[in-house]
Amino acid sequence: MKNVLVTGGAGFIGSHTVDLLLSRGYNVRVLDSLVSPVHLDNIKPDYLSKDVEFVLGDVRDKAVWESALINIDAVFHLAAYQDYLPDFSKFFHVNTVGTANLYEVIVEHNLSIGKIIVASSQAIYGEGKYRCKVHGIQYPYPRSNSQLEMHQWDIVCEHCDNMLELDETDEMHVNPHNSYSMSKYSQEMIGLVLGKRYEIPTVGMRYSIVQGTRQSFRNAYSGVLRIFAMQALSGHNLTAYEDGKQIRDYVNVKDVACANIIALEDKRTDYCSYNVGGGRQVTVNEFGNIMLEAVGNDAIQVISNGEYRFGDTRHIISNTNALRELGWKPKSTIETSVKEYINWAHNHPDFGDYVSSAMINMRELGTVRGSTLK
Question: What pTM, to 2 d.p., does this model score?
Answer without folding.
Answer: 0.95
